[in-house]
Each structure stands twice: as C-alpha cells, then as structure tokens.
Amino acid sequence: MDTIALQYRRLGLLGPLLIALVLPAFWVGNTWAEAPRHAVLPAHEPAFKGKIGRTYRESQPDKIPITKAPAGAPNILVILIDDAGFGSWSTFGGQIPTPNLDRLAKTGLSYTRFHTTALCSPTRAALLTGRNHHSVGTGVVTEMGTAYPGYSGLAPKSAAMVSEVLRQSGYSTAFIGKNHNVPDWETSVSGPFDRWPGLQGFDHFYGFIGGEANQWAPGIYRDHQRVEMEIPKGKEGRYTLNDALADETVSYIYQQKSVTPDRPFFIYYAPGATHAPHHVPREWIDKFKGQFDQGWDRYREETFRRQLKLGVIPPGTKLTPRPKEIPAYDSLTRDQKRVAARLMEAFAAYTAQTDDEVGRVLDAIEQVGHLNNTLVFWIIGDNGASMEGTPFGAFNELAALGGIREDPVFIVQHLDEIGGPKAYNHFPVGWAWAMNTPFQWGKQVASHFGGTRNPMVIAWPDRIKQRGIRTQFHHVIDIVPTILEAAKIPKPKEVNGVRQKPIEGVSMMYSFDRANAEGTRTVQYFELLGNRGIYKNGWFAAVRHGRLPWMMGLGSSVGLDEDTWELYDLTHDFSQSDDLAAKHPRRLEELQQAFWVEAKQYQVLPLDDRLAERFNPALRPSLIEGRTVFTYYSGARISDSSAAPTQNRSHTITAHLDIPQDGADGVLVAVGGVAGGFSFHIKDKHPVYEYRFGPVPTKVTSSEPLASGPNVIRMEFRYDGGGLGKGATVSLFVNDRKVAAGRLDATIWTGKYSADETFDIGADTGSPVSDDYASPNRFGGTIKKVIVSLGEPTPTVADQKTLKDIE
C-alpha cells in the first residue's frame, strides 16, 4: 500500500483513474480474496454459471446451490444443567448416582476448572454468543434489566449466537428447554420476536421462557405458540417437563436423521432441571429415602473424600469451612431435620431423573448411528447450587423469598406432598453449600467458586481419543470458539449485514490431545450483583459483597468501596481456601486494577448491587407503558409481564357477564398458580377473590349467589402503599352492591406473580391458583369483557358499607 500511495503522488491527475482500476485487483489478490469462506454470513450468492437465451430451448440452467457443512463437521449437542453444584453428581464425587454422566466421562474428558457467571441468564447469553455476559447486555437476569449497555437484557445483533452461524453453515438447529434470554417485555403474542430462538438461528424451539418452570404444569412454547404439555396416556401423575423435553429431543433426532442423515445437527438441550421447584415423581423420591439423614456438614466431608479418591480435586486441596451465616445441621430441631432431609431427597431424585432423561437422548443418538461423530458438551450447572431456599428450606420457595415464614410444623404435615404438584419446594441453604463441595458459597456469588466453578464433560469419540481429567482454567465463553474450530467454521466478521463484535472466548480444542497443555485463558473477570472476581495467570482476587444470596430484599447496606478483597494462589489452592491478601498486597492491587480494566472493556460499569429495586418493571421498556385501563376478552392468555401491572398498587377488576338460567361456575380472571397469584372466579354461584401468597391463601367470598342474566362483578383492591409487598383491602361488588370484604397482610413484591404462568381470562391455565378447583376450570357462562383499571377505585355509596353491615 505504501508503494501504491507513492505512485499516486507521482502520477498526479492520472493517479485517481489508475487507483480505481488497480486497487480492486490488488485486494482480490490479497486480503479480500484470502478472507475465509463464510466469514460474512449469509455467504454471497454465487454468480449464475448457466446460459440464458430467448427461450429455455437455447438456454442452459445452473444448479441451485445448497449450503453444506464442512466435510467431517460433527453433530453438536450442548447440554446445560440448571443450578447444579460441583459436588452433587457422582461423576465428580457427589452422592447422587448419575450413571449416564459417568458413562460419557469414560469416553471423553472431564474439565474440573471450568467456570460460569454465577447466574442463569448471564451464563446462557455467554454460552451461546462466546462473549462475556456484560458484553451482550446480560449482566443480570432479564427481569432485572436496566438501561445501561451491560444490563439491558438485549443481546445485540453484533453478537450473533452460534446457532445462527451454524445454521448458515449447513447445520440443522434446535433449542429444547429453558430460555431465560428473551427480554421480559418481549414475551407476549405481540413480540417482537427478534430475540426469540426462531430469529437467533434455531430452526425449532420447544421449551419455556423465564427463570424456572412448574415441572407438573409448565408454560410451554412450540416455536412462538403457547401450547400445553401433552401427557401420554397411562403416565398421568408421573410425567413431568423433564420427560417432555427429553421426548421432544429424541423425536427431533429421529426425524432429522430420517430426512438428512448426512446433515449435522446442533441441539442446545437445557432442561431447566435442577432449578427449583424440585418437582419429580414420587417413585424417584422413594429411591432416596433416608440417604441424607447425615446432614450437610457430614455430606461435605464424605464428598470431599470421594473427590480426592476420584482425582477430580488434586491432593492437598482443603475443604473450605461452613460460613457462620449457614446453620450447623446439628443445630436444627427434629422437625427442621425431617424437612431438610426430605427436601434434599427430592432434589437428589430430581437430579437422578435428569441424568436418566439425558441418557435417553444419548441413547437416541447412538441408535441412529451418530454417537461417535457427535461432539457433546455436558455442563453441570449454569451456576453453583442455589442458595435461595432460605436457611431451613421451603415448601413454597417464592413465598419464602418474599418474606413469608413457613412453620416447620406445617411442612411436616405436608412432607409427602414435597416434589408433587401442590408444592413449590426448595432445599435449605446448607444443602446448597454441601452440593458445592469443596468450595465456598454458591449461586449468585460470582466471587467464589461455589457460585462459578461447574464441572463439564466433553466427548467426541471420532476425535477425542484420550480420556481423563483436564485442569486448564476455562470459562463458558470458550464453548463457541471450540465449536467453530471443531466444525471448521471461521468466526464470522459479519452476520446478516451487521458487523460482529470479536468473540471473546478461546478454543479449548488444544486440550483434547494434551492433558498438560498450558491453558490459553490467562485473564477472566467475574461480576454479579456487586460480587466480583478476577483471574490472572494463576491468581484470583475476589470480593463477596454484602447481601446473602437467600436474602431477596433490597440491595446491600455496605458500600461497594467498603468491601474487603481476598487473594488466592490457584496454582496451589484448588478450593480457594487460603486468603493471601495480607501477604501479597502488591499482587492484590495489581489484580484489582486488572478488574477495572476488564470492567471498562466489557461494559460491567456501573456496578449495581440492587436487587428488589431492579425488579421494578418501570426500569424497562413496555408495550403497555402509560396505560391505566385494560380491556380483555374471553380466551385471552397473556404473559404475566405483558398483562396489566397490578402488583404493588391499587386496582379494580370489573367483569361483565351473562349467567345462564341454571348458573355458571369457573374462572373469570386468573394470574399465577400454585406458587402465588390471584383468581377471581365463581364457585357454587358465589363470586370469590382468592390471593395466594404463602401456604394458606386468603379468600374473599360473596355472601350471596349470582342471579341469572347480565351481571357486573367488581373487585376493588386498595393497596396500603409505603413500599413493595405491603398489605391491601379487598372488596367485592355485584351490580354496584357491596357483597364482601377482606384483608391481605402481605402481597407479592416482585413485578411478576410467577415465573412462567400467564394472565388468563375465562380459565386458569397451568397450575391452579385456588384449591377450589382443578385447572383450567373454564367459565360456564359468557364473559363479554373484563376491565382492569389501575389506581384508587372511585368511591361509591356502597363503599361506605362495612363488612359488618353486609353480614
């Protein structure tokens, strides 16, 4: 180029003409011509090579091209388990038998220094894009997004998912399971669908949208359509979402290989297990009865010894002590121990069932003859085990996290219901800590490996010939470049007309053949809700910030600058047990400075430790923003986040009905389900408003039955105000006459009533809010319309009546 510039000056006015002719030829012979195949997606359409005459008789057609994957490109299966710690699955020393992970590990490699982000949405965004979670706007879960670039919840088009790259390179692609990366305000029938799987490179999606799902009554989507989970005949009462997702994956494999056996597939299989609620058929729970009576302190010691024996932790590793904030198992009462043991039995059963379902998927790949040429990544956890189950566990985790104290006596009385459709159970913090053996802390805590070090198995029999353990330090962003190298597909520079951000991960393929190869990831930052960490050349600086992960209220009262940093030499300290900050202050300062460099580069700033405050829907865009009156019609089924925002405010629901001569029961309006929500329904001709938050719902029932013919039923909800989750007074009116009133002491404080249930008119789909009925309990009369009005109800003469007057 220097030579060309020099000639340009010498040629004077003739220069521009010659440059216009010569420069394109220069680039075709150099950089442009050398650009690798598929560096720009979609690839340029090939020139027509046939002949075109006046008619087809003197013409010659070309061949219509079909995009094919590179020769030898493997099938790819990425399996992501939810909320699973390092010390739970038997392959890595846990007590829960997981024979299918064991058998995969025997054919491949076990990675023991692999890391996630400490929370689900961020890990999943990083996994699918190959970029750090803040780089793709997912510094926290989508329901807590704010209008800062690193926290928006909007994965940019400049960071195309690996699915889109593979699809445009000749792969069939499918996403089956949990999708926690659709912005909360884009989950309704109105979309937009840009960040749904169908427009992110997946030919097929079957699963749920959000952080968790009721395994017995999940909110399922097939592509963009809400559907019901189909329960095979004869499996009623023992068929859950875990079964359905495996069935769908197996079916997809059979169909895809029946049609195109030589076309590789990419399947992202994310079952949502073992995230709470820990729902699993009773037959699985019974297998673990009495197996965890030793408690979490002894479990840690037993698991630690198994890990040393298996070699998944090196000799000299220390077992980190129990934090003072977690109670000793022996300090629990007899009832608390009974509850804790049963909750752990349910979790173990859930884990074992999940391993079994993944085994069915592997069996299907083997049956179609493609197991040897399938590159499998089986990641045990998108973060460590969840510490959100409170110190003593929960029959209803959402109520417990909302501050509702559950009486152990109540849970003991309902022990047999744990894991079943009436429960929404989560195990105690101590069991989560035990599942993360040998590390400190757990989910949400990005500063310590209990939250971020998740084991992984990689198998690919046609290519990986070695077996055993790999100890190089790697991160979830390294999966995408590994996939692309394995498939011989270059990292794209442009996708669908958008210039791409550089992929920030590094390939792990170098480790497939060399157990002792030097790791290629030398620096990696960690940050979540103010918890911070930085890895650099074998050293790790960490700071756990204030709030405990099971305290789901407001942010920490401790300032971010007041935190105390720790320092660990990971070359000699696998479990992050010996804090060397006092011995090496200069090295700690160096790492702290490195953190700020990474934080600035990858959109981590500004640091934000708020929790409950960020659940406020007003912080995010909304298709219903500014509206105060909503009119709904019979059959409407709307995602919770797109329905009228009735939480933490006064509101009125007015239903215009036509009751047939013999009466009509059923649901008028319902949102949420067994874990929490409300139902406005008719039972035995009496209007009922029921609010569920905690083990015992609050019910307000009309003193009089409805007459046949037209009726207008109104529920007025007067919120106390003064913050989130406060109480309220509920009044019922029939044709402007007050017929009942009642009192709620507390309400659901988050911006949603549940994780995956919907706002329904004329039915209660999913799990039922009320014990009065079974879902869907469709209304037997006619609903002309339902109007939801936000704000204080307009006073009427009837409002002056007291409940005593009515009675």
Question: Which key phrases capture this entry?
Answer:
single chain; about 800 residues; alpha+beta; Alkaline Phosphatase, subunit A; 3 domains; 17 helices; 31 strands; about 20% helix; disordered N terminus; Sulfatase_CS; metal-binding
Short synopsis of the structure:
With 807 residues, this protein is an alpha+beta fold.
Could you please describe the fold and organization of this structure?
- Keywords: Calcium, Hydrolase, Metal-binding.
- One of its GO terms (molecular function) is arylsulfatase activity.
- It comes from Candidatus Methylomirabilis lanthanidiphila.
- This is Arylsulfatase.
- Belongs to the sulfatase family.
- By secondary structure, this protein is α+β, with helices and mostly antiparallel strands.
- The protein folds into three domains: 2-34, no CATH class; 77-373 and 382-518 and 525-601, Alkaline Phosphatase, subunit A (3-Layer(aba) Sandwich); 624-806, Jelly Rolls (Sandwich), CATH 2.60.120.
- Helix content is 22%, strand content 20%.
- It contains 17 helices and 31 strands.
- The strands form six sheets. A ten-stranded mixed β-sheet has the order 8-7-6-5-9-2-10-11-3-12, with helices on both faces. Strands 20-31-22-27-28-29 form a six-stranded antiparallel β-sheet, with no helix packed on it.
- α1 (2-11) packs antiparallel against α2 and α9 runs parallel beside α13.
- Mean pLDDT is 92; it is low at 1-36 and 797-807.
Second rung of CATH, namely the architecture of the largest domain: 3-Layer(aba) Sandwich
Give the overall silhouette.
Answer: globular
Rounded mean pLDDT score: 92
Task: Note the total helix count.
Answer: 17
CATH C-level of the largest domain? Alpha Beta
Radius of gyration in whole Å, from Cα? Answer: 29 Å
How would you name the CATH homologous superfamily of the largest domain? Alkaline Phosphatase, subunit A
Main sheet, how many strands, which sense, barrel?
Answer: 10 strands, mixed
Distance between the termini: 93 Å
Number of domains: 3
The counted number of beta strands is: 31
Share in β-strands = 15-25%
* Poorly predicted spans: 1-36, 797-807
Oligomeric state of this protein: single chain
Classify the secondary structure makeup into a structural class: alpha+beta
